[in-house]
Amino acid sequence: MNAPRRKALITGASAGIGATFAHQLAASGYDLLLAARRGDRLQTLADQLVTEHGIQCEVLSVDLASPDAARVVVEHLDKLDWRIDFLVNNAGLSGHSKFAQATWSQLNGEIQLMMTTLTELIHRIAAGMMERGWGRIINVSSLAALSPPGESLLYSAIKTYVLILSQSLDMEFKPHGVHVTALCPGFTYSEFHDVMGTRDTANDLPAFMWQQPQDVARAGVAAVMAGKPVCVPGAFNKIMAALMRPMPLWLSYLAGRALNPFK
Questions:
Q1: pTM for the full model?
Q2: Measured distance CA(254)–CA(261) in Å, rounded
Q3: For the chain, which residues score pLDDT lower than 50?
Q4: pLDDT tens digit sequence for 134-166
Q5: Which superfamily does 7-258 belong to?
């Protein structure tokens, strides 16, 4: 009797890096739950993945910026009787107005989507991974988390939270067979800039600064499987990260682990 396939949950899976994660994990034999707002896009992708890879692929149309989003996702998993082995927290957005000019609803939506829902999903799912002794979690941060602070950039502050949280949880979970990786891509070809209204600015950047989403997702999967807590994909991004951070990430991680107050 064949062992059941492992299950993966991917948020923000309707396009870009999230959809690419779906293709790569499906090709590796994972059954998938794809969660995002655009249910029609998710269903089209799911149908394609089922046809190409013979996996089971479920979709859930949900606003991940809603306060009850994580609960809705977990309740859907319970209905499917699924236990998640691989979690990809990919859903994200960035505001395009100054902090003081944005409404609280806009700012709170960013915080809810990329901090609260992300953290709650990990909290609800990681315990089962640890009980089973195996799990993989990728949290999509950004090269912005390694950059100097910029005016009005709530996005950078949020992605810094994701970076630090991922490293902290990797320290806690790894002895139980669960790896956590913060994936920190730079400029990546996707719909992100169209949705955020920054396409013209992005198009002015030189080609060597850009990566394909397939390369970003592949690097993230390889990093989490290898147990690396931080992944900066691409040679250009690695150089930029090294120039912007006074302490190398690996040394910062080791120092933080050594100073753990819960030992």
A1: 0.89
A2: 14
A3: 193-200
A4: 999 999 999 999 888 777 789 999 999 999 999
A5: NAD(P)-binding Rossmann-like Domain (3.40.50.720)
Q: Is 155 a catalytic residue?
A: yes
Token couple for 260 = 């753990």
Q: Which of 257, 229, 30, 4 shows the shortest CA–CA distance to 139? A: 229
Query: Which sequence spans correspond to the domains of the chain?
Result: 7-258
Of 30, 155, 161, 253, the active-site residue reads 155
Distance CA 51, CA 26 (A): 11
Tokens representing residue 229 in the block: 């807590």
Catalytic residue list contains 238 = no
Question: Looking at 159, 161, 228, 253, which residue is catalytic?
Answer: 159
CA dist list (Å): 256 to 89, 148, 230, 239: 23, 21, 14, 23
